[in-house]
Amino acid sequence: MARRRVPRWLAANLLLLPAGFWLAVFLLVPLALVVEYSFATRDTGPLRVVLPWTTRAYRTALDPAFLPIFGRTLTYAGLTALACLLLGFPLAWFIARHAGRFRTALLAAVLVPFWASYLARIYAWKALLDGEGLVNRLLGLVGLDRDGGFLLTDGAVILGLTYGFLPFMVLPLYVACERFDYRLVEASYDLGHGRVSTFFRVVLPGVWPGVLAGSLLVLVPAAGDFVTPKLLGGVDQSTFGSVIDDQFRGGNNWPLGSAMAVLLLLLVVVVLMLRGRRGEDVL
Amino acid sequence: MARKDGTVRIARLWDTDSRRLTRRSMLRSMAFFALAAQGATACAISEAPPRNASGATNTKASNNVAENRLNFFNWTDYIAKDTIPGFEKESGIGVTYDNFSSNDELEAKIATGAPGYDLVVPSDNFLRRFVRTNLVRPLDHDLLPNLKNLERRFREADYDPGNRFSVPWAWGTTGLAYSRSQLGTEVTGFDAYDLPAARGRSIVLDEARDGMGLGLLALGYDPNTKDAQQIEEATRYLLDLKKKIGQITSDVVEPLTSGQTPLAQVYSGDAFQAKDTNPDLEYVIPEEGGLTYVDLLCVPATAPHAENAHRFIDYILRPDVGAELANTIRYGSANTAAKPMIDKELLDNPMVYPPADVLAKLPFTKDLGPDVEARYADAWTKVKTG
């Protein structure tokens, strides 16, 4: 008896099922809930969100009072991505080009801090940046210390974010550097370019997809992070993420928190769309 | 080719080269799943429940499950050594004792249908919320003959007049903790936030009613005011104060003990805990006043052993048991009958048991109703983001 074949279209969809299920449960349902909550009415009791539907949360979230926070969040994320790039590129280049047999070990070393809880590591930074902390005392030796330490400053937040997201930059850059054809550099020298113009006109374009990928991978989570600004920042370091966190916990305003989360998401989507055509190869 | 080689693929949702699985079919599937997800969540939001509908007439408490058990959910390090063994021995009821470390944690547990807890200890601000949404059941006063031992102030308290839903476990005050050596002076009121040594390093509690309360008290207003104008003024005062302080956070014990912050608005219990490790710290009730907070025993609406919970509450209200509890945790006791057995040194400590004239400036945090409470929450968001 001939085995009946499953129709093509059905087979394709059946194969999609596990991935589709995963997407639905872990991405779409939570996302749909957030969008749904953002249009609901706030309840001050434990129900948090009730009917009727309203756009009030969006009107509040788009209040000009939140603009500085919006700007601060983007500044933090941008500077973090830049700092990660400046630190990560030499490291990735070195590991990919010159580390030889230590390559794997060095890459692992980049990842090892990830094994410890992020919270614990940020608390460690708290102790380091404190007025009596190591950083301030060492800087004190050369007269660069600051009264009260560097905790609760913009710098502390950017430092914490850079520290936390650096591996996201190093890994894609490493892949890009590793694949980069070094003969192009030799050719560039042969054709009369100096070191600087070789870097900008040959190396950088060659590894650009890695730069873009790394920057996006850092930019996006850094824009949403709330733990770092809460722990390392003070009263003037609240970011979009920390305000969202406030609305879900103390502020008890889930619709507003959801609306802000949706706005942040849209912002990230816009950034992703601006990544340009070369970026499309990347993510 | 260099360009293709240089391409880094971190993640790809679909492969454009494959014919079978086109971008369009993928998008179609995704749209389908999105719709399905929407359908699955559509029932998540309901109409607002009737407010204050907790006028249940039947307060008679009995066990839904006939067994000698009691599931008690309390704060960490907040009980005397013999409290539970003593109860077990007398009543023959076995107690399961679990701990939480924040009101949020407790609320998360009991709002999702209370996993079998018979007795929980929220702070008064959370009790008001629980009552508003029927998460706790009215107490059966017939089973609580020792209720008469309570101090009058706690029988008529604004958060739960007549102890309809709760009985105090312990109480404390919201004031200021400071490091005498760092500030170099005694602190008497909120003007301490202006001290040069405190600038940029001090802390205000991240809790809408306590934080707004600080602003209202500093301006000489009632911290339980419903007046929109006064709340607005307090918001402006706090926005101004924000320029001088370091952080708005409820995480105060660690920065105080490490000496990182020299001045913080605190709950007295946290202040004494920090003082245990850092003797340099002092706690003071500001001359402008403060708030009294109370941690309260109450019975979740879904408690399987409500009758046993009542027996435990009545046991705690006994003078000897209440005194032992107060002597161990070193918080204020609301039990008048227990007073003679409480350590003299503790009773004489004005920071634990403030004298009458100070107590007059330490009201309870009143339940101001959903609308005014929301106004406070929004004002607080303004303070934090402004």
Helix-strand string of chain A: HEEHHHHHHHHHHHH
CATH class of the largest domain in chain B equals Alpha Beta
Q: How large is the share of residues in beta strands of chain B?
A: 5-15%
Give the low-confidence spans of chain B: 1-19, 52-57
Beta-strand percentage range of chain A: under 5%
pLDDT averaged over residues of chain B: 84
Name of the CATH first level of chain A: Mainly Alpha
The backbone outline of chain B, from C-alpha atoms, is globular
* Helix-strand makeup class of chain A: mainly alpha
Distance between the termini of chain B: 54 Å
Distance between the termini of chain A: 48 Å
- How many domains is the backbone of chain B divided into? 2
Largest interface: A-B, 67 and 60 residues
Shape of chain A: globular
Q: Which range best describes the helical content of chain B: under 10%, 10-25%, 25-40%, 40-55%, 55-70% or over 70%?
A: 25-40%
* Strand order across the largest sheet of chain A: 1-2
Backbone structural class of chain B: alpha/beta
Give the strand tally of chain A.
2
CATH architecture assignment of chain A = Orthogonal Bundle
How does this structure look, described?
The complex is a heterodimer of chains A (283) and B (386). Chain A has 13 helices and 2 strands. Chain A has a single domain (41-280), classed as MetI-like fold, CATH 1.10.3720.10. Chain A has a two-stranded antiparallel ribbon with strand order 1-2. Chain A has 283 residues and is an all-alpha fold. Chain B has helices at residues 2-5, 23-41, 83-91, 103-111, 124-132, 152-155, 180-183, 208-218, 228-241, 253-257, 268-277, 306-316, 319-329, 344-347, 356-359, 369-385; strands spanning 69-75, 94-100, 119-120, 167-179, 203-204, 247-248, 263-267, 281-284, 291-297. In chain B, the strands form 3 sheets. In chain B, strands 4, 7, 8 and 9 form a 4-stranded antiparallel sheet that branches. Chain B has a 3-stranded parallel sheet with strand order 2-1-3. In chain B, strand 1 (69-75), helix 3 (83-91) and strand 2 (94-100) form a beta-alpha-beta unit. In chain B, helix 8 (208-218) packs across helix 9 (228-241), helix 8 packs across helix 16 (369-385) and helix 9 (228-241) runs parallel beside helix 16. In chain B, 43% of the residues are buried. The model of chain B is unreliable at 1-19 and 52-57 (pLDDT under 50). At the A-B interface, helix 1, strand 1, strand 2, helix 7 and helix 9 of A face helix 2, helix 4, helix 5, strand 6 and helix 16 of B.
